[in-house]
Amino acid sequence: MYRYDEFDAQIVRERAAQFRGQVERRLSGDITEDQFKPLRLMNGVYLQLHAYMLRIAIPYGTLRGEQMRKFAHIARKYDKGYGHWTTRQNIQFNWVALKDIPDVLDELAEVEMHAIQTSGNCIRNTTSDQFAGATAEEIEDPRPWCEIIRQWSTFHPEFSFLPRKFKIAVTAAENDRAAIRVHDIGLHMRRNDAGETGFEVIVGGGQGRTPHVGVTIKPFVAKDQLLDYLEAVMRVYNRFGRRDNKYKARIKILVSETGAEEFTRLVDEEFEAQRDAEKIVLPQAEVDRITQYFAPPAFEDLPDTSDVLEAAKAKDDAFARWVRVNVRPHKQAGYGIVTISCKPIGAPPGDVTDTQMDVTADLAERYSLDEIRITHEQNMVLPHVKLDDLFDLYQELDSAGLATANYELISDIICCPGLDYCNLANARSIPVAQDLQNTFADLERQDDIGELKIKISGCINACGHHHVGHIGILGVDRKGEEFYQITFGGRADEKAAIGQIAGPGLRAEDVPSALERVIETYREVRSSKDERFIDALERVGHDPFKEALYAAG
Amino acid sequence: MPLVKNGEVTANPHGEVLTLEPFLEIAAADPKDAVIVRLMPDDCPLQLEPFIEQLEVVEISFPRYADGRGYSQAQLLRRRLGYKGEIRAVGDVLRDQLLFMLRSGFDAFELGREDAAQAFAAASREYSHFYQPAADGESGVFARRHS
Fold this sequence. Notes:
The complex is a heterodimer. By secondary structure, chain A is α+β, with helices and mostly antiparallel strands. Chain A has four domains: 6-110, Sulfite Reductase Hemoprotein, domain 2 (Alpha-Beta Complex); 134-291, Sulfite Reductase Hemoprotein, domain 1 (2-Layer Sandwich); 307-399, Sulfite Reductase Hemoprotein, domain 2 (Alpha-Beta Complex); 414-549, Sulfite Reductase Hemoprotein, domain 1 (2-Layer Sandwich). Helix content of chain A is 37%, strand content 16%. Chain A is built from 18 helices and 20 strands. Chain A has helices at 6-27, 33-41, 65-78, 101-110, 143-153, 226-240, 251-258, 260-273, 284-292, 307-315, 317-326, 354-367, 390-399, 430-439, 443-449, 511-525, 533-540, 543-549, and strands at residues 45-47, 52-56, 62-63, 82-85, 91-93, 127-128, 168-171, 185-191, 197-203, 215-222, 327-329, 335-340, 351-353, 372-374, 380-386, 414-415, 454-457, 471-478, 481-488, 500-501. Chain A has a five-stranded antiparallel beta sheet with strand order 1-2-5-4-13. Chain A has a five-stranded antiparallel beta sheet with strand order 3-14-15-12-11. In chain A, strands 6-7-8-9-10 form a five-stranded mixed beta sheet. Chain A is globular. Chain B is an alpha/beta fold. Chain B has a single domain, classed as Rossmann fold, CATH 3.40.50. Chain B has a six-stranded mixed beta sheet, covered by helices on one side. Chain B is globular. Chain B starts with a strand and ends with a helix. The interface between A and B is large, with 41 and 39 residues.
């Protein structure tokens, strides 16, 4: 994991001091709320329905036990004892008082953390594959480049007042867990004919009111040109992105209105015009320095299989199911990647308590070489667990309420805070998620249904990623009444697609039974248990599922 | 409105400052008068290239602080065109934008507050290091770590 040197540490300390000054000036009336807004927004402070909300950056979702323990402490001392994982792999606290935020930032700086650029019209936290550095699927660990992008984009003098927020995601695995095609910029690490690794650059993806799948504008950019190329993309966006209408200001609109070809030409022209003095100096020694922090940890030499694990699975069916559902293969023999579900049946998706954070910190130190990941699907991951340790780990997770065996299953729902917390929302989303979880609570049934991604947003801003849910649910308000529009066929992976609306919206109370009929239809049409919902949908088309959705008798 | 330059409040000579289009017309007719111009956010600063040696002041207008196109204009003037004269930020210029502006190549600021000099001094001292190279000549932390 990356560790701060004196430069990083000083920048974060100075940021905390600067924000303390800004809060003082706001509280003393030197600046108006309107003038304070861009300052607090660039520091992850939102004014929400009930209080200020503080969003803290977890760069590319990677953290260590000490940092998780600090979140637990913040939850206890400054909030109501819990935090919420966001779809940018960050954490947010919903009840922090404005006057306390400078103290929270000081405490975060002690463990090399901050809230820089977690909101505002700037470059946000760079996200990545939560299995990076652990999965055998990737050509190399993408996180050194995420860290380089983090540093380059921090307080960028030219790109801090963009037309709109800007999100970058990086993956190096064919199976895309980072949803890079629905980001402003998606970077997919590729190998060229000469065997060098570089980046496919995908631009203009996004969700919100007008969802788009990004387009590849450059199949391969060499590593030593990445930042200069990103600068070219950013400058074209900063100069030509629309500023007349907030809802048309994302880069996806610029790319679609300009046309992908013309946009690419503008970027290439800008890139070619860069003079030597404009290039970013990124010495190879610096790339090596940062890369070193992500060198594989001290794995033990172990056999492929574990007798301890097999014996425990044979004795305990619930454990065996958890291993089957939540543990994925590791590149290192004798290890597994464990997803800790933060979607227990009937609780708000992505919420964790201070106690659960403390437990996770301890378990990471004992069982996962002190590494934790947060996923954009609002779960946690222990990336490096010995197969021999899985049963012990499982028992401890279970007693903390963290062993729900539903990773990628129907109850592993992405859900925005909705009308219960958010002042943008038109409809509630958490209660809908909870109703669905309760309807499909039986884990055996979930396991039988297999991989199915439900994503729920409480308004068209799409924070709950409903456009890319295999089944998407969008809450809308019609004359004071909440309705839920269902979409089918969205996906955020390497075959990214925007879901299609099935028909008229449903009432909240009708959603669970309607989806039960859809699931029954799926079970009838699937060619075998191995054909996932999304694959069956692609093969047979949407019609049978639409019919089932509206077949209430 | 006070003008802060080199950290000090100086007289702000309010003459008629031409926007880009009339400036280009007059400059084409009589280049020796082409010494001061005002860019609006829509303008392309690269159009000033023929006059870059003789220009003394380029005003970059911020009708709203949230409109960040002026930062790109300043970077292009300084780094692409090698402009050496004054770049003056005018309009909705706030204390907390000053450091971004300084780094982007601005060196004069119309700052609508009594304590303009103190505010400028405080804002420009808030950080000791910067990650990126920019128009202020800073090489960036990536390079500094290995120098």
